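pasting for ref. prot 1 ->
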Amino acid sequence: MTALTLSTAAAPGLRADAIVVGVAKGTGSKSGGLVVAPGAEAVDKAYDGRLAGVLETLGASGGEGEVTKLPAPSGFKAPLVLAVGLGALPEKDDSFSAETLRRAAGVAARALAGTKKAAFALPVTDAADVGSIGEGVLLGAYSFDAYKETGKDGNGAKKGKAPLAEAALLGGKPRDKAFKAAVERATAVSEELNRARDLINTPPNDLNPEAFAAVAQAAAKEHGIKVQVLDEKALAKGGYGGILGVGAGSASAPRLVKLSYTSSRAKKHLAFVGKGITYDSGGISLKPAGHNETMKCDMSGAAAVFSAVVAASRLGLEVNVTGWLALAENMPSGSATRPGDVLHMYSGKTVEVLNTDAEGRLVLADALAKASEEKPDAIVDVATLTGAMMLALGNRTFGIMANDDAFRSAVHEAAEEVGEAAWPMPLPEHLKKGMDSPTADIANMGERYGGGLVAGLFLKEFVGEGITWAHLDIAGPAFNEQGPFGYTPKGGTGSAVRTLVRLAELTAAGDLG
């Protein structure tokens, strides 16, 4: 991980490999050209106030995510200046949003791969800005190289580039408690989010349910979190028919992992439930060619829950947080669940399986019912659940469903606050009829149209009476198959980690219900 430091040093005298500055598109009274953003005054002065003009000559426009490199002026100890676009200049007070700063810092950090130290002279008005920049740096510098050959190639050149090693954040106050806390929070949340990315990117032959559970056990021991792992024998004894049914076709047995973070000052209890299908072939309802290659990411919900619980512990939040990881591998074999089979769920309900590729809701149903027994103040489940949600909201936005409108709004606000694109979705009761089964209490499939909402309605049936609940369908943003953007890499993204952490923070502060 990139190391974050706070510095009061002036950019010209700082020993670094690069100085990062922000530039924006002029608007209003400053329209018509490139504008150097606050924080870069000393750098601009060293160019005799002509930095914007020089950058425009090089083709810079200030567009969001744009990177322009140029030699540092004479007298600088850093040899390079990197200008990153911030988009349109705010018309009122030149104050850029937290997400704008995150994305710019992420783009710059990724562009500086292979660099030992960079100084970030981006706009800072308060500690929150420093936190946003730090978060962007740590998330943008991420790379997953565990399976790539290291060393040098046949020509003696080093293979690949290591992530930016150190980022000095200028404009902060190293001795100020608020600034120090902002950096500490950014570090804890980003490190855990990147841990989730690592898990998502790990090939399924190395990350089966048992291996995932072992990772969770190791982290729990390190961070003082109580952990319980139910193996296939315990699941059978407990009657977890959903998890067992999904994992029945695999040589790798399923697991249910419970992570419990407790605070002596907690007044509220949150439960997070994550779908952890370590590989999803579709089972007997096999996925068509072209739809299997990225299915290692079908455990992204469990990864998000796991990382959020660890982050809550590292931050010492005054709220009890329980994470439930429903882990299974969905494979076709002679022992696999068949379309038409009926599963006896942990809750006591029976489910007719009409499509074995609608497996995520089955493992979540057991975990939701179990989580409900503890009567938490709220339950939030996270899952790469339906392709229908991707059709509705695209690849960068997750859907939010809930049994309480106010809670759904609160989750949406928390997501937007931390920079995770989300959208509230309904749970129309009329869609429930499509899951009527002549054989069992409910079927795992319903109407084709509104499939993401049907899945939410199915899950709602397994939430304990009177418990506030929300469902996050992160099928779109959990895995980025396109090129990197902002602080988001190609591959696993860690979607929903920051939303869950923010919900825990708001609950601890008494600002969430």
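and prot 2 ->
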Amino acid sequence: MIHTQGLKSPYQKRQAEIISLIAHNAESRTLLEGSLWFHNDVRNNFYYASYLFAAAIDPDLPVEFDRERAKGTAERVLLEVLSLQNQQLGTKLYGHWPLGLHPVPQDAPLNELPVEIMGSLMAYFCKEYGAHFSVQLKTAFDHTLEHVYNSGFFRKPVVYYNHHEAKYTAAKLIFGTLFDDQDLREDGLNSLKTTLQYIKSNGMPEYGALPWFWHWVQAFTCALEITGDSDVELKDLLCEMLDYLWNERASFYLKGAWFGAHSRGWPHDIPGDGNVLHDYIQFGDFVLPKEMPRTEYAGFLFYEAPESARASALNRREPIEVKKLTHKIVPGASDFPKLHSYAYVTADYAAGGIWERVDEFDNEQLRWSFSLPVSGEDEANQLFFFHPGDYYYEGDPRHQSGHMEVLYHRNVIMALFPVSSEDQDNLVGVLPKGKWIMHDRSLFGQASGVYFAIYLSVPYELIQRNKYIEVAAKGLPGGVVVEAIRSAEAEEQGILGLEQFADVMKERSPEFNSSSTVKATYTSWVGNHKLICTAESETTSAEVDGEAVSFENYTV
């Protein structure tokens, strides 16, 4: 429980801020039919009610509502959420909840997902706040947790090392502890060991997956809170897991942004990093946006990242390259493909992506992007281009086809699109809002203290979207080249504004070849490096200053 009296650490202050913001948001909402605030996701009702309850009982947390009335509302919502659990032993999805509740919550179909994270968080909420429950709420929670335990949803082996199995592992430890089930607890301990050993040796198969990475963090932090000091070996392993996770996060962190490739992402994370509450509490070096699309339990669960992780995340004065290797698990394959993730991060922007492409769940991946710090304005902070693929629809720039070859070198990204005559020939780009100058087949812009030079092999037009600018182009096969330059760096070379930057950079346009072989040749402004990317029907090559790109320095 976050005690606001005599707060000392910045983490506790930021958690108290989150609790207050979400509690006031919850208190101001009107209950829908069925005593719930949300029908889109049952979990949101539990999260918001948790925050409202926590704020209402904390006399040291300033609030602008009547505490008793708010506590009563929170209990009412919590009781309603608990009542939606299937408590009929022997039925399908026993111990589970529905996910979407519209139009009638009591008639909504059951779903496997909510209990995965919500079941464990309920156990934590009872442990921390149970002393303040009414008799009715305490009894309801006791019954609910017993049904979760008896459901055994977590009794599954570790196979894919994904976020589902991470939550199963944490739940084994949590419910094994709560119900004194030593066999279950031992299963959880073995699953934890197996998972930790695998990801430390092979990387996380779900690279940059949001919001699911935060489910890993919450699940294992929750397990640490509940199992406590009952087992020294378990505590050490949970701390080792959380240290690993926060080191992974820090590797791709820039002032609230998660740069580089994402195997999956939701609309609130692409093209703008919106799921930032855990980052805000841990690092606190950016302005908290007004929108909070994934509240979950960021305000309650906290594990301090290793000092080395915090130092690397918060100290970006000198540009560095991040080269990571991970193994993608493919069911039925005898050998898992190796994926090489590259990123280049400076104090003002980061660039990066993944060299190889594999199919991902629901094709929700982000292959590469330039990322700017989170501004707090609920706007896009990413810049990228792609050829639309499965599930793509206008206005949702997450679904990319496999027709893209790349070259990453520090502040430059080259992307080629060798589409065939049977494929659609359009190219989609995302730009953060800023100042942009349009030229024939090139764009020059400035956003958040960074200049961008963008060169296309095909004509384009701009479309104003709600939170970003879309580049709509047709005429593929072809390619795009993007170079980012810090404004301060440009000024050192005598460039004093966007127009002067555009005048200088338009003379450096790359050479494109879009016949049977798609090829781009470009000499970077920073470092004067000659970059060549070639995509043919069977082979792809990437060269920097006459040498083929090597993956020798990529490590897990």
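The longest strand covers residues 478-486.
Residues 182-202 form the longest helix (21 residues).
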